[in-house]
Each structure stands twice: as structure tokens, then as C-alpha cells.
Description:
Elements: H1 2-21, E1 26-27, E2 32-34, E3 38-40, E4 46-51, E5 60-65, E6 73-76, E7 89-92, E8 98-102, E9 106-110, E10 120-124, E11 130-134, E12 143-146, E13 154-155, E14 161-164, E15 170-171, E16 173-178, E17 181-192, E18 198-203, E19 206-210, E20 231-237, E21 241-248, E22 255-260, E23 265-272, E24 277-284, E25 299-301, E26 309-311, E27 315-317, H2 320-324, E28 332-334, E29 345-354, E30 361-364, H3 369-378, E31 382-386, E32 397-401, E33 407-409, E34 415-422, H4 432-468, H5 476-485, E35 488-489, H6 492-498, E36 507-511, E37 514-520, E38 526-532, H7 540-552, E39 561-567, E40 570-576, H8 584-587, H9 598-617, E41 622-624, E42 633-635, E43 641-643, E44 650-652, E45 658-660, H10 673-678, E46 680-682, H11 683-699, H12 715-724, H13 734-739, H14 742-755, H15 766-774, H16 800-815
Parallel strand pairs: 25-33, 35-39
Antiparallel strand pairs: 1-10, 2-7, 3-4, 4-5, 5-6, 7-8, 8-9, 10-11, 11-12, 13-22, 14-15, 14-21, 16-17, 17-18, 18-19, 20-21, 22-23, 23-24, 25-26, 27-28, 29-33, 29-34, 30-32, 31-32, 31-34, 36-37, 37-38, 38-40, 39-40, 41-44, 42-43, 45-46
Helix pairs in contact: 9-11, 9-15, 11-14
Amino acid sequence: METAFYFCTACCFLIIFSNVSTAIDTISPAESLTDGMTLVSNGGTFVLGFFSPGTSENRYLGIWYNDIPVQTVVWVANRISPINDSTGLLQIQNGGRIVLQVRNTTAVWSSNTTASVRNPVLQLLDSGNLVVRDGNDNNPENYLWQSFDHPTDTILPGMKVGVDLRTGIDRRLSAWKNWDDPSPGDLTYGVDLEGSPEMVLWKGSEKYSLSGLWIGAGFSGAPTYSSNPIFDYNFVWNENEVYYIFFLKNQSVKLRNALNQSLSQSQIYTWNPESQTWQVFLALPIDYCDRYGLCGPNANCDSNKLPSCQCLPGFKPKSPQRWSSSDYSGGCEHSKPLNCQGGDDGFIRIANVKTPDTTNSWFNRTMNLRECRASCLRNCSCMGYSNLDITGGGSGCVMWSDDLLNIKQLQTEGQDLYVRVSASQAEQKKKPNVRLAIILTTVIGAFLVLLLVVCYIRRRRRKLRDEFGDKNVNDKENKEEDGDMELAVFEFGTITRATYNFSVDNKLGEGGFGPVYKGTLANGQEIAVKRLSKNSGQGLTEFKNEVKLIAKLQHRNLVRLLGCCIHGDERMLVYEYMPNRSLDAFIFDQENREILTWPKRFQIICGIARGLLYLHQDSRLRIIHRDLKASNVLLDSEMNPKISDFGMARAFGGDQTEANTNRVVGTYGYMAPEYATDGLFSVKSDVFSFGILLLEVISGRKSRGFYHANKSSNLIEHAWILWKEDKPLDVADDFLVNTGDLSELLRCIRISLLCVQQHPEERPSMSSVVHMLGSHNELPLPKQPGFLLNKKHVEPDSSTDMDASSSRNEISLSLIQPR
Ligand SMILES: *[C@@H]1O[C@H](CO)[C@@H](O)[C@H](O)[C@H]1NC(C)=O
Ligand SMILES: *[C@@H]1O[C@H](CO)[C@@H](O)[C@H](O)[C@H]1NC(C)=O
Ligand SMILES: *[C@@H]1O[C@H](CO)[C@@H](O)[C@H](O)[C@H]1NC(C)=O
Ligand SMILES: *[C@@H]1O[C@H](CO)[C@@H](O)[C@H](O)[C@H]1NC(C)=O
Ligand SMILES: *[C@@H]1O[C@H](CO)[C@@H](O)[C@H](O)[C@H]1NC(C)=O
Ligand SMILES: *[C@@H]1O[C@H](CO)[C@@H](O)[C@H](O)[C@H]1NC(C)=O
Ligand SMILES: *[C@@H]1O[C@H](CO)[C@@H](O)[C@H](O)[C@H]1NC(C)=O
């Protein structure tokens, strides 16, 4: 009865309220907001009301988006004092204090409005800010209280995160404990004022990840994100306030930055109106090198290297034993003692880094780099310095004392850090004549090298021109492309000559989109020509995509594209030739498999991982391969792996991590379940394919077409069953078990199972994979893998959980046309 009554009142209120809510978006002391009513912001974007999160039955007062179907709460008032029934009532009292009451008596939450005004009004602004204003005040931006000063777990555009030094208010976020409970978890995010200020993500009282210094146009940990197409951000740092803020570049985009307790991340989401879902645009920590102090003091973390932790130049591991067994916590120390008193120290420059933890730092905005250096040199406790602001040629000075902690190597942008070392190790030598000599030799040397390079380029250009001669004039697209990419466009005649008119003898194989031919140019250079079949479904757009992408990507574990050729509606790609063909020709071949011994295989695995990491993390483009498999890994003359076939890779703006596609491409047997069934691809679906590939390299068996008497219908399942039966090594090729390093083998099996886990968010990123391959640390336990079961091979008595996943995945089989 009672619930029915409440429900009815709620409905009536809702109806009455929604009738007037577009006109009235404020509450004054005579009115109140009860459970079931909502207050809509003036532009209709946000709504204030009572809600129950997840499966909880508790009621909370909160703000969520009004105009999207997924309830996304951005602010909660009574997050630590839930209401257990629907008697919640929000009122604004005469002075201006807002109070949330239950059962008409008990206050469970209130605003700490200090000022007292005659005519207070409560208003929800279209920015998502709930404010108390004086109705008589002509300045509508004079807030007595605002929810933006009391954030929960979400930053909205226009909201400040940080400290107001005048009022002492510290706007700090804390994650929800879990989906059902908005009370504060232990993950918090805010400004740390100690030393020089920076943004910090804490776990409990420990620092978890730092932004690095604000260096003018961005944080030194991610300087390029300031040029993203969606939002502008700023870090304001003056005597009154220190805060981080962002603004939308396009007001019709929805963007929020929320903390995620389970992943320990600060995630920036954008709303995708097509798929009606939130998508992660950027998450911090960006990779494991952003984890606080991962490499210990005086070391640099480079996620593109193995091992990732490297002592700074002029430093050596404090404990070489522990360091070599991948325990980096002890960090590094000077390899030659300093002689500060003798005035005999110098500095080594380390380019493109995220600055060290600023706790033990101090700064001066007016000093230039030279004064900064001199000042650091004078003070024996100063261990390093850098510019404060790198825009406009650099200005300001930051100096660090004690150990330098939390340095991360970036690839292209970032701060130059000068680290104190003993004079003999420093870049600049003291004696002027020596210095002069060095400068002279360097200059002369550089000049000679330059001369040689110029000559070489000239000669090569001429040669290329002679070789490929006239361009295909009847294709306009062709000319355009050539202009902005500087990619060699081969004449069709050159290609036919090189491949003996695509003779059968020259055919290397049938790639994803057509046959591949070996060719020899007139100058003797060997090439591989991929002749894209006309019915491959790859149109001009995709072709251009592939050509542009591959041309931009250069890494020693990626196949290099030399050029392309367009002849009528026929398109060809010209690659460097890989004499040892592809990985599948070895691992699945009874005669050749022993050529690839375990150390060689391990090296190949690490190479593939690094190549894929490069694709996923290159600062400007984020490439998802989408068709990683053994036949797409080519081997050069020294058996170094090179990933090929980016035809289906899609360029992201360096930001999106997940996208939805209605055209599933890829190869059955390597596809992640979420990709095969829902067309949802992400870097994590590549990680899945990598996991399969790893299993294949270890087992010497194909993922597809695998059949085992032991009921298992595919390789993952086979490996998983053996893992659960505690005999993981049984999955490996006997020849490897007999000759390889068993602990490394075991480690790789475990990594492969981590990569093929059912849930994409549980799979490691490629940077963690690279790290796991290179370290000896304990690995997490893999969870249930994502099966792509072929129902035919499943015995009727197979366990129920497999049945559940297979029935879901069965749909996928009709979607895919196995090649
Ligand atoms: C709600 O909590 C109050 C005490 O805070 C308690 O007296 C009441 O029984 C609870 N109601 C329900 C429905 O659990
Ligand atoms: C709340 O209490 C006031 C008096 O204190 C009373 O007038 C009002 O009707 C009560 N409201 C409800 C919903 O019980
Ligand atoms: C208001 O102030 C009281 C005491 O000063 C404090 O316990 C309470 O948490 C504050 N409430 C909010 C919402 O800040
Ligand atoms: C803003 O975003 C909307 C939706 O994403 C888009 O349609 C529109 O073209 C964008 N406007 C500008 C100026 O970029
Ligand atoms: C945390 O992030 C994961 C992956 O993006 C998502 O599935 C999960 O729902 C998020 N949790 C919360 C509380 O937002
Ligand atoms: C910064 O350095 C300049 C030049 O050395 C000096 O005059 C000034 O007092 C310094 N400022 C602070 C705040 O230390
Ligand atoms: C030297 O650096 C330390 C580091 O914190 C600082 O406290 C001290 O004032 C500096 N001394 C001079 C003379 O600048």
C-alpha cells in the first residue's frame, strides 16, 4: 500500500513537474524536490533527481545526463549516506543552505553554504553544475555554493579540479567504490602542491600515477594531447589558484572524465551517438611506465625497450643482482661520485622525458636555462634541472634535489631534463681547447656526413627516376597521392618486367587480398609485389588507407612499403622482399620447424610484441591491425619478424581505443569473441590475436582446424584445459620442451592465456605484454579464455559454461566467411 502510494505521488509529481520543468528550472525555499521528481537544467542537458545505482536499492540524490538513454551519473550528493526508502526530500532553506532530508525529519546531507541571503534559489545549470544563487543578485555567476566545488568521481567541461589557495577549498575526485556503491573508493585524483604542482592519481595515500609538470601547452607526461580535436585543457597555476580544467572545442560533443576504481584509471569518455555508448578517449596511466616509481630512483622507464627500466646515463644499478633479476625497486646510483665541493660536476641532457616527481623540486619562473644551470651547479643538493615552460623556446627553471623518481621516456615530444653527473661524464668538457677540438671535429664530421648524404640522395633520386620513370598519367588520384606522401609510384611496365609478367614461378603465395609475387628490379633490388585482386572488396579508399598508413609507419618489426602501382583499376603494393617468407612456413612445417629453436622463437615473439606495441602506441596514429596471424608475420634473412598486411588497419586520431564496425574483417581462429560477434574491435582484440599467435608458436599447431582427442575443439581450449589440469607445458611442441628454457616457455604460455581472456578489459595491453616478456616478475593468473567454439567438435557432455559461450559465439560463425 505504502509503496503504491509513494509510487503514485511520485508519478503525479513527475507529471506535474515535467510539465513545468522546461519553464522553471530552479527551486526556491517554498518548493522542494521529492523522490520521483526531477529538476532539468535550463538547456535540457542534465537532470537532478533521486536514483538507485546498479543493483542497489538505496536512493541517492544525483545529477545525470538527461538527453542520453544510458543513465550516467556525474555527481552524487549523499554518496556516503544513502537513503533506504523513497522519502528523500531536497529543500533550500531561507539562508541558502540546501538540505536533503529523509522521513521529513532527519538531514542526511547538506551544503555548507556560509553566506546567508534573503532570496536564495537553487538552479541546475546546463553545464551540470548545481548552484545556489542570490535571486536578488544581478550577477548570475555569483554562486553561494556550487556542486562543481564538491566533485564526486567526474570532471565535466568547465569544472576546476584543484586548490583555491584563497578559500582553501581542494576539489579532488574520488572513484565510486563499485557500480552499486557511490561511496568513495580509494582511488583519488587532484592537485599535489608539494614542490612544484602537478596532477596526481592516488591509491589510498600512495601516489599511483603523475601527470608530470605543466610545461606550457600540456603536461610533460602527455604533451601531445593538447592538440586533440575534441577538447582544450589548461592547468592554471598562480598565487590564487592551482587547477586543471578542460573545455569542449565542439559544444555538441559529450565528454566526461571519470575515475574507474576497478581499473585504477582516470578515463576520458566521449559519447558516440551512433552506437549510443560511451567510448574511452584516453585513459591515465597511459601505459605501465606511467605507474609511479616503477623503475626506482634515477632510472628511466621506456615502454618501447626491453627491459623497460634503464639507469639514467651516468648511473648504475644500486644492486646489480636485483636489477638483473628485474627487481628495479632499488633504482640506480651515480656510477662516478660527484665532486660538488670541487666545483667539478656537469650535466647530461636527456631528451623527451616526462619530468621526475616534483615533490622535492623548486621553481623560478623568471630564470632562463643558463641561470638555472648555474644555480643548480652551485647548490650541491640539486640533482637536475629543466625549463619550466617549453613553449616559445623555453623559459623558467625547475630544480630537483635528492633522487630523481618516476622519469618516463617519451618518443617524440616532452621535456629535456639535465641530470647532474661527475664532470668526466658530462656532455661539455671543462677545458676550452678540448672543447674547441671536439666542436671542430664534430662540425667537420657532420659536414662531411651531410655532404655524403646529399650526394647519396641525389644519386638515388636520379636512379629512382630512371628506374620508375614516367608516372601513370591517366590516373589523377595517383598524382595527388604522390604529392603528399613522397611515396614511390612504380610504373606498371617496371613491375611486369620485375616479376616476369607475374609469372607463376615468381608467385610467393596468396595473401589476404590477392597473390604476392617476387620481383627483381633492374638495379638488382628484390621486391615483393602484392597484386590486389579486383574482387577483394578493397576499394580505392581502403587501398589509399593502406598505402598511407604503411608509409607513415616505420619500425624494425614492420614490413616496409617501398611504393605502389596503379594501373587502370588494378592496384599493387610494393614491399621489401623477405627472403624467409612467413612464420607459418616454419612453425607448422614438420621439416622446417626445428630451424626455429626456442631462443629464436622467443626473439620472434618479442619482436612481434614490439611491432604491435608500436602500432598501438605511436603518438600520432593508433593502429589496430585486426588481422594478426602467423602468415602475416614475415621473416627477414636473419629471422627477424616483421608484421605485414595493414590493409584492414584503421587510423585512429591517436585517441579512440575502441570502435564499432559493421564489417567484420579478419581471420577465423584469431578473432577475439567481442570482435567476431559484435564487430567491436580495439587494441585488445589485437592482443587476443597475439595470444593465439603466441600459442601457435609454442605448440606448433594451428589455432584453426585444431582437433584433439581430448574433447577440446580448439587450441585455446586445449591450452586452457591443460593449464587447469596443472600441466601447462603439455601444450608446447615436444621439441621445444626438450631443448628450450622451460621457465621462459611457461611464462609465454601464461602470457598467451592472459591475452586470450574472455573480457577485453582483463587482457593486458601490448605494453604490459612487452614488459611481461622482459621481466621475471610474478604474472597474474589467467581467467577463462574467450572461446570461439566450433559446435561440431564439442561433445554433447561438455561443461555448461562452455556451452553458454559457444551458443553466443555460434552467431559469429555465420558472420564470417572463412578464407
Ligand atoms: C531505514 O533505516 C532506518 C534507520 O536509519 C530504519 O529505522 C528503517 O527501518 C529502514 N527502513 C528500511 C525499509 O529498511
Ligand atoms: C513534513 O512535516 C511538515 C511539518 O513539520 C508537514 O507540514 C508536512 O506535511 C510533512 N510532509 C510529509 C510529506 O509528511
Ligand atoms: C559540512 O561541514 C561539516 C562540518 O564542518 C562536515 O562534517 C560536512 O562533511 C560538510 N558537508 C559537506 C557537504 O561538505
Ligand atoms: C560538432 O560535432 C557534431 C557531432 O559530432 C558534428 O556533427 C559537427 O559537425 C561538429 N561541428 C564542428 C564545427 O566540428
Ligand atoms: C571501468 O572501465 C571498464 C572498461 O572501460 C568498464 O567496463 C567499467 O564499467 C568501468 N567501471 C566503472 C565503475 O565505470
Ligand atoms: C627568480 O630568479 C631571479 C633571478 O635569479 C630572482 O631575481 C628572483 O628573486 C627569483 N624569484 C624567486 C621567487 O625566487
Ligand atoms: C639548495 O637546495 C635545497 C634543496 O631543497 C634548498 O633547500 C636550499 O635552500 C638550496 N640552497 C641554496 C643556497 O639555494
